[in-house]
Amino acid sequence: MTQQPILIIGGTGKVGARIVSRLRRRNVAVRVGSRSGEPRFDWTDQDTWDAALQGSRAVFIVPHDGELLTRPFVRRARDLGVQRIVLLSGRGVDVPGYAGDNNAAGKTHIDGEDAVRSCGLAWTILRPGWFAQNFSEGFFRDAVLTGEVRLPAGDGAVSFVDAEDIAAVAVAALTENGHEGQTYELSGPRALTIAEALALLAEATGRTVRYVPLTVEEFIDHLEGEGWSKIDAEAYADAIAPIRRGMDAHLSDGAQRALGRQPRDFARFVTDAAAAGAWQG
């Protein structure tokens, strides 16, 4: 096994866990950066940074949304001898009007990308769109289980990207030459409306699940009725807005450029997730 480990910040998350699994299958030494990891890593406790970074040859960064911590972290990584940085950013970072003016995650990504590009190390930036896994592991799963997904997305389409593809691109960038200085925009191979995505999910699972379009006001009221704060409800509505405005339908070529193949289709995602029991119980 390679002696100098690769540090995966967010190594227990949707993308990070898949990266860790792929690297371990390649017999690459991995250090999982999380509050339950060894050594422990906590974005909000800078005293934990050095132990996680010390001796690491490359780092995958899932930034801490809402705070501008990527820049000092990258600076510390450079000082401790890290040679390569791969940053998980997001779609729309450089698209005017994509995120609201008060979008905390957007500000984190903008500052983080600038920090990485100017750090003097080999760097790669990944900009995925909406994850397909939001239906199986994230935002939409509970709603899928109720049989109704209520969103203010109108009839907008989304080129959902499979987290397996994001992980594959990250592993390539962390372990291979030729990805330095690249920004990979990542999407699936086609755009689907929420209703179309749910129809594929229903076909794969046998579940009855439908899309219920809401106005922004109805959506915020719905979330507040479930106990959300108004601020959080409005932030979620803002995150959905680009779908409604048709800004998430375009296809990106990052997977083809990085991996030399087409990205995984949403239909394959739902088939695999259903077989793994993602929507049981």
From TrEMBL:
It comes from the Bacteria. Residues 10-176 form the NAD(P)-binding domain. SUPFAM superfamilies: NAD(P)-binding Rossmann-fold domains. PANTHER family: PRESTALK A DIFFERENTIATION PROTEIN A, PTHR43162. This is NAD(P)H-binding protein. It comes from Nonomuraea marmarensis.
